[in-house]
User: Which sequence fits this backbone?
């Protein structure tokens, strides 16, 4: 199989190394808006012992679509996602794209219509669906081990804010960060969100106020069976990278993301201390999950498994994020019907 990868930033570099090691990937063509960066990455992966034997080369984005690749992996800047998804669809190429499809609902719906009209394949990168802890939690819920799940708590905390230049392009904390929590909430529980009430704080670094964004946010989500979920996020968690989910049922409770690297200390005298090596970031915490989702994409392209996360799944999560942003700005409960009238 020959795969083209577009976008050689942090996540693109990681994905390129994973694909180069995959035994089913015979060659990898990497491209970037900055050709020199793509060439440097291709040389480093191909000549640095990362590749398992397949050729690694670099070229332009146009060369990816004209170069006889079997599939495309899109890890470019968010602003380019929808256009590249459309190009892959028109070329009849299966595509894997990091979230989001686009930063707004109209752009997302337009890209999805193009994919569906072409009958092509699109897998979205929600890597938590491939994390061992979240998989175990989903199995526990579906098996009935927890009984009726009445409360879910989702937490995402970044150890430090991103660069100021990133914020105006991110879509905001709900769309950029909490969208992962919204997706995994649906996936683990098997429930849909009925309504949301959200609040945010920009009391931290001034760059968030300048970008009309918040550095900390919280949402209360009522699910379609009446159960409750909370989702909180912050860009300013100096203790480390903290991503968790807690599920409380009538029979049992379960936590995802609680291990000896979780950046959390107990205030109890006999409780566990802070970890000596807390998770520093998402690539460390979710490295196995990222590898598993790319392996799944290869299997999907080869026709060996069904698509585990198509574009419509990403649309559901984005709609929840949009509802939360409206709720934060307008200070009211927002019902999901407001965002599901079209598309």
Assistant:
């Amino acid at each position: 199989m020959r795969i083209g990868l577009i976008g050689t930033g942090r996540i693109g570099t990681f994905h390129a190394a994973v694909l180069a090691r995959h035994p089913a990937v015979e060659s990898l063509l990497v491209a970037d808006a900055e050709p020199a960066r793509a060439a440097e990455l291709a040389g480093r992966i191909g000549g640095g012992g990362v590749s398992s034997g397949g050729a690694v080369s670099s070229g332009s984005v146009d060369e990816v679509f004209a170069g006889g690749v079997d599939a495309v992996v899109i890890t470019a800047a968010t602003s380019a996602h929808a256009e590249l998804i459309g190009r892959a669809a028109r070329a009849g190429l299966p595509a894997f794209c990091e979230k989001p499809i686009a930063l707004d609902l109209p752009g997302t719906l337009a890209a999805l219509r193009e994919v569906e009209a072409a009958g092509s394949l699109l897998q979205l990168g929600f890597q938590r669906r491939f994390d061992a802890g979240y998989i175990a939690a989903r199995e526990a819920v579906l098996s009935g081990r927890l009984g009726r799940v009445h409360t879910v708590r989702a937490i995402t905390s970044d150890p430090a804010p991103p660069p100021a230049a990133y914020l105006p392009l991110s879509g905001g904390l709900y769309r950029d960060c909490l969208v992962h929590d919204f997706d995994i909430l649906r996936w683990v529980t098997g429930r849909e969100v009925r309504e949301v009430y959200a609040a945010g704080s920009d009391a931290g670094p001034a760059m968030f106020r300048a970008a009309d964004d918040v550095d900390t946010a919280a949402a209360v989500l009522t699910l379609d069976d009446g159960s409750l979920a909370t989702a909180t996020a912050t860009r300013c968690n100096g203790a480390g990278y903290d991503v968790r989910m807690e599920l409380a049922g009538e029979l049992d409770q379960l936590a995802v993301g609680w291990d000896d690297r979780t950046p959390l200390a107990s205030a109890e005298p006999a409780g566990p201390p802070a970890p000596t090596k807390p998770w520093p970031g998402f690539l460390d915490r979710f490295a196995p999950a990222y590898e598993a989702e790319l392996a799944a994409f290869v299997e999907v392209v080869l026709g060996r498994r069904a698509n585990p996360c198509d574009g419509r799944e990403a649309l559901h999560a984005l709609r929840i994020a949009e509802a939360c942003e409206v709720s934060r700005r307008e200070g009211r409960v927002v019902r999901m019907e407001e965002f599901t009238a079209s598309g």
About this structure: The chain has a mean pLDDT of 94. The chain has two domains: 2-127+291-309, 129-282+317-339. The chain has twelve helices and 13 strands.
